[in-house]
Sequence to fold (71 residues):
Amino acid sequence: MENGVKFGKPRKIKPAQERLVKKLKAEGKTYVKITEATGIKKGSLYLILNPEKRKQYNKSHKIYLSAQRKS
Fold:
């Protein structure tokens, strides 16, 4: 990453969209209303609003992929 190279799949949800989601939730909007306003699916909203769950999901997914490669 010295030269600014990022590996992996590019993110589909931009930081501006994440800020909007957090703002709408702070205003008391429901997941359904936020989905209608932004077009972001409910599962992605949950991971944006609960970053500790994203870390947990990523860790579990890496373990799953590792197991798939071994078999």
Q: What stands out?
A: The first helix runs from residue 15 to 26.
